Amino acid sequence: MISNSVLEEFELLPGSLSENMVIDGLDVMRFNDGQRLQIGQVVLEVLGPCDPCTQMDRIRNGLKQTLNGKRGRFAKVVTTGVIRVGDAITL
Questions:
Q1: What is the DSSP letter of 57?
Q2: Which end of the chain is less enclosed by CB atoms within 10 A, N or C?
Q3: pTM exceeding 0.85
């Protein structure tokens, strides 16, 4: 998952960094490892940060370096269900 503000900062479209979820209004980099989020019916457990890889430079030269510390975080599904655009996030 990635924060929408990061996509806006770098003028990137959702999905362009191969992220599965864009979070609006929260800095996902501030989530803690092990923290659980409920979004719609789904519960996610926050894992570690997603470090930028060389694929970022294929999108835009130098993007790997500038995304350092902003690329987003991994999460695993604890409880499956439906997530809809606009669902609130409960920490």
A1: H
A2: C
A3: yes
